[in-house]
Amino acid sequence: MVSIVDKITLFPAFLMFALSAYLAFLTLQVADLSTKATLLNYSTISFITGTLLIAARIVAWIISMSSQNT
After folding, report:
1. CA 10 to CA 51: how far, in whole Å?
2. I need a surface site. Which of 23, 26, 61, 67 has the fewest CB within 10 A?
């Protein structure tokens, strides 16, 4: 069963990774350099945000596993 913590962290992380991929693809389609740089920055920020959400979930999982063992 999926807990509420899983839903809070994993679904937005998936959305951030999907947004990152979409913006990276859109970067290839745009010819204007300033727009391309802006899209690439947003793509990078969304990828890093998704990575941080996954890292937070892993830390929460490790903490919950260690608290169950004691």
Report:
1. 10
2. 67
Q: Which residue has the tokens 């990575």?
A: 51
Distance CA 45, CA 26 (A): 15
pLDDT of residue 70: 65
What the block records as the tokens of 51 is 């990575």
pTM of the model: 0.82
DSSP category for residue 10? H
Q: Are 28 and 12 in contact (CB under 8 A)?
A: no
Assign residue 3 a region (left: φ > 0; alpha: ψ between -120 and 50; beta: otherwise): beta
Question: Which of 2, 10, 1, 3 is CA-nearest to residue 56?
Answer: 10
Helices 33-69 and 4-29: crossing angle in degrees, nearest 10, is 160
